[in-house]
Amino acid sequence: LQNYALAREPDVATTLWLTQSLASLFACPAKPLVLARNAALGMLNHLPALRYPLAAQLMGLGSRTTDDNWS
Q1: What is the dihedral of CA 52, 54, 55, 56, to 10 degrees?
Q2: In 3-state terms, what secondary structure has residue 47?
Q3: What's the pLDDT tens digit per position in 14-38?
Q4: Closest by CA position to 41, among listed 25, 56, 29, 30
């Protein structure tokens, strides 16, 4: 279990940082920032190569692969 926890530390730290950053970004009501983030979200709808890794990271699965071995 300790190996698993150690292996997950970087992913957990990245997920926490990304979640906090996005929360701050979406909490800011400044019009230029609202326009920029709306444009970025619109682009994500058309760019699955970026959308899927972002979704995986936000779920805490950013560095996982199908053959991970937690022995």
Answers
A1: 80
A2: coil
A3: 989 999 999 999 999 999 999 999 9
A4: 25
